[in-house]
Amino acid sequence: MQLFDQHHLFNTGQDKTTVFDLPDAVVRLREQLFDKPAADRLFEALLADTPWKQEEISVYNKTYLTPRLTAWFGDAGTEYVFSGIRHRPYHWTPGLLHVKEKVEAEAGQAFNSVLVNLYRDGRDGVGWHRDNEKEFGENPVIASVSFGDSRMFQLRHKFRKELPKVNIPLHHGSFLLMAGATQHQWEHQVPKSAKPHGPRINLTFRLVKY
Ligand SMILES: O=C(O)CCC(=O)C(=O)O
Ligand SMILES: [Fe+2]
Question: Taking every annotated instance into account, which residue ranges of this chain make up the domain Fe2OG dioxygenase (predicted)?
Fold first, then answer.
């Protein structure tokens, strides 16, 4: 069953790689790790088959619902702590294992877990943050794949406020790698958008050290 009209889903149609020349960061974009037919199939399968949940986060004794839906998958033992609560990952699905293989080949390293995010529309997003939790080791490598509607991904230096913000539109089927000191020196976000947006799924592959 087709859950979402894919006709407008934008894929650059050109598999270009861009290495961003940023101080204290290693950031690489591949426009089309998945071509449009593959991205369309994966988008539908992930949308339908993922056990989506809207997590609560506590900030200063108040609880909020995160403005996106998430699910965590990984090898047994890759527990993660979210808002003070221990979570067990779901087992890998065949679809996710297929994506993982392609992502590992492109990144040149293995991953053992993935956080899957669903941005239902323009009102969903993720605020400025770094993914530098201890369980990801010294210089975490994070590989991100996007399916569905295009959204803007932004980076800003955490300490050198004079540096300009970096805007990277992430399209259907794209791959983005963050490595080196990126998770220490830079923050990233996907801002909410006042423009209408269809759903977008993003997968961030990580290596939990345990
Ligand atoms: O949706 C994205 O492109 C980024 C998601 C993200 O930053 C995260 O899951 O930590
Ligand atoms: Fe992140």
Answer: 110-209
Q: Which CATH superfamily is domain 21-206 in?
A: Alpha-ketoglutarate-dependent dioxygenase AlkB-like (2.60.120.590)
Q: Which of 147, 142, 164, 146 has the alpha carbon at shortest distance from 155?
A: 164
Low-confidence ranges of the chain (pLDDT < 50): 1
Question: What are the sequence ranges of the domains in the chain?
Answer: 21-206
| CA 85 to each of CA 116, 117, 181: distance values in angstroms, whole numbers, following the listed order | 18, 18, 27
| 26-40 per-position pLDDT tens digit | 999 999 999 999 999
Instruction: Confirm or reject: Cβ of 131 under 6 Å from ligand 1.
Output: yes
Ligand 1 contact via 118 beta carbon (within 6 Å): no
Quick one: pLDDT at residue 82?
Answer: 67
Name the DSSP letter for residue 88.
P
Judge if the beta carbon of residue 27 lies within 6 A of ligand 1.
Answer: no
Nearest bound ligand to CA 189?
1
pLDDT in tens, 58-79: 888 899 999 999 999 999 989 8
Instruction: Establish whether residue 55 lines the binding site of ligand 1, counting it when its CB lies within 6 angstroms of any ligand atom.
Output: no
Q: Which ligand has its closest atom nearest to the C-alpha of 169?
A: 1
Closest CA to 47 of 207, 201, 204: 201
- Residue 72 vs residues 31, 50, 62, 81, 107: alpha-carbon distances, Å: 25, 10, 24, 11, 20
pTM of the model: 0.94
